[in-house]
Structure formats: structure tokens, C-alpha cells
Amino acid sequence: MDADQRKIYRVTELTRRIKTLLESDIGFVWVEGELSNLRRPSSGHLYFTLKDDTSQVPLAFFKGKQRGLTFEPKDGLLVRAHGQVTVYERSGQYQVIVDVLEEAGKGALQEAFERLKRKLAEEGLFDEARKKPIPLLPQRVGIVTSPTGAAIRDILNILERRFPNLHVLLAPVKVQGEGAADSIAAAIDYLNERAGMDVLIVGRGGGSLEDLWAFNEEVVARAIARSRLPVISAVGHEIDFTISDFVADLRAPTPSAAAELVVGQKEMFEELLTQTARRLERSLQTFRLELKNRFTAASRSYAFREPLNLLKQYGQRVETSRVNLGHSLRGALRERQQRLDESGLHLRHRVDLWHKAVAQDVRRLKSQLRALSPKAVLERGYSITRLKDGTIIRTAGNVKKEDVLETQVAKGVIESVVSKTGGAT
Description:
Rossmann fold; 13 strands; alpha/beta; 44% helix; CATH 2.40.50.140; five-stranded parallel sheet
């Protein structure tokens, strides 16, 4: 083909033609996949990738379209996005401009994260009671991270600026990819075996869920849990949370923040010591002045100037109190004796009344007894007749002819012999 017959496109023309074809032939679509590599710039737009087992597609979700969003997007979620397929001309990369984003479920990594998190929580690895305190001024700091990443540079810069003489030991490890989790766990164990270490920083810089996944592995969580040294977890950015963050004794939002947490500023401690010394000096001066004033006041008091007069005054007070006490005791005794006398008279009067009442009752009862006695009955003309054996005769049928009877009257006994008996009436 002749050169003048060839159709030659400029890059921009070709990109726009592809963009037009995609927007016209495919247009708006629904696409489902696992959300990954989420980015949130200050503009408020969201940029992320949807992926499956073999492919991935970039998406942009602009701030003005997010009003209907009902969940918090984060790496690992399974989502459905609706939007227009187009081309970002500057990079020549096709993407989907999202207008609707729905949660479809949890992605495989997110499910694994939640499953391990539940397991370790049930075992108590996240409990606050097992968290170890971070030393105030550690002398030796162990760092478990990549020797070439931005995290180690940030940490060392801050430590150098705050405490240049701090001893730092780096245990270089892989922080992502195959074997990274085992490498991190082994480094934690190694630093625990070394003598003299005070605290560990374990972490890395930011990245996608897949990039940070080594810090979600159980082997790393177990290594942190069994560490005798306090561990600060510093993985990713402030919005990133890993299993290591929950198991560690302290979570730092970034590696730089971990360095700031592990050591305070030298100037801050120096100023604190200076202020404490000043407060102590002022307190001692105040205390000394207070003692001096008290001594001066005491030396000028009447007790020091006239001690003999003071003793005499107290002696007079004691004597007056003794005399008053004697008067009070004698008066109290007289009053008590008077009360006893009055009580004795009252008691005797009551006894006399009681004695008279008892005597009167006795006389009345004697009179009643006399009236009811057999002798009194006999004196009224009645008699009692008995057989010789003492049996009292109550009816004529109780006797028979020739029986000897004894009849008792008021004065004496009459003896008789039965000559005749009549029938009982």
C-alpha cells in the first residue's frame, strides 16, 4: 500500500475514536467484582479497582454522584457498580464512570479477614487486659519492616530528630507477597530473643488490601501475641486496619506516628524537668517561709513571754474547777438522798395500804369459811348420823334393824340402836 493511501491516526484521534466506540456500543453497564486499591483524595472523589480471579477494571466515583451511597466502601468488599464505560484520554486506559455503587457481599479476602478476626477475638487476643504498656523512654527499639520502603525512612527520620542517641535495630523482612507473613513472624521472634530490647515497631507503608495482607495472617498475629516485648502496629494509612492492629499492644495510624509514639520529643522532656524543678523550688521556698512565720509568731506569743503567769492562770482554773466539781458532787448526792428518802416513804405507805387490804381479805375469807364449815351447820340444828364404821347415813335404806348409829349434834354424840326402819322416800 502506498504511503499516501495509509490512514494514520494521531494518538489523540485514536483514543477519542476508541472512547466513542465504547460509549456508543457498550454505554452504561453493571459490573460486579471485589473492591480493591481504594483511594480517597482530598477532592472527595473515589478511585478504585474491581477485580475477579483473572481480570480487573478501574472505576471512578465522583463526589457529586455519592449522595445515594448507603455503605462505606473499603478494600475487600464485593460490590456492584453501574456506570458508563469510557476512556481516560490522558492515560489511554479504559474505565467505568460510576453513578451507582451497591454492596453485593464480602470478597474472599474480606471474608478471610472477618473469620480470623472472630477467631482471635474469641481466644482473647484482642483483650485490653493483656495489652502491655509502652515504655516512656525506651533505649533500644526494634523495627520489623522492609529495609527499602518509605516506612523505615520515615521512622528513622523522626527518631533521629527526637533522640539522636537512641539505639535502633532493624530486622529486614518482606512486607508483601509469598512468604512475607512467615518472614515478619520470624523477625518478631528473633528480636524477642535478643537481650536489651525495649519495644518493637511492626509495620509498612500504605497499599491495597492485597499489599497489606501479610499483616492479616494468623502467623503474624500469633507472633505479636506471644511477644514479651510491647509491640506497636503501624500498617498502612490511618484508614487501614489489619489483624496486627487488634493484637498489638498499641496501634499507630502510620509508621511515622509509631515513631512519635515510641519516643517523646527530647525538648518536651527537658522542658518538663525544668518546670518540675521550678515548681519544687517554689514549694520549698513557700514551706520555708511558712515555717519562719510560724516560729516568729510563736516566739511573740504570750505563752513564751509570760510562762509563769500562764501556769498560775491554769492552776487557778484547775482549783476553781476542783471546787466547783466538789459542790456539784455534794449537791448531786443530797438530791439523790432526798429522792431515796421520798421513795422510801412512798414505798412504806404503799406497803401499809397493801397490808391492810390483805388483812381485810383474810378476815372476809375466814368469815366465809366459818359459815360454810360443818360445825356451823350443826349449830343451826342440823346433825350427822353414821354407822359404827363411819359411813354417813343419807337414806333410811342405808340401815337395818339392830344397827348401832352415832348421831353427831352441835355439842356431843348420841348413840342409838335401830328398832325399826321405814322405806326410802
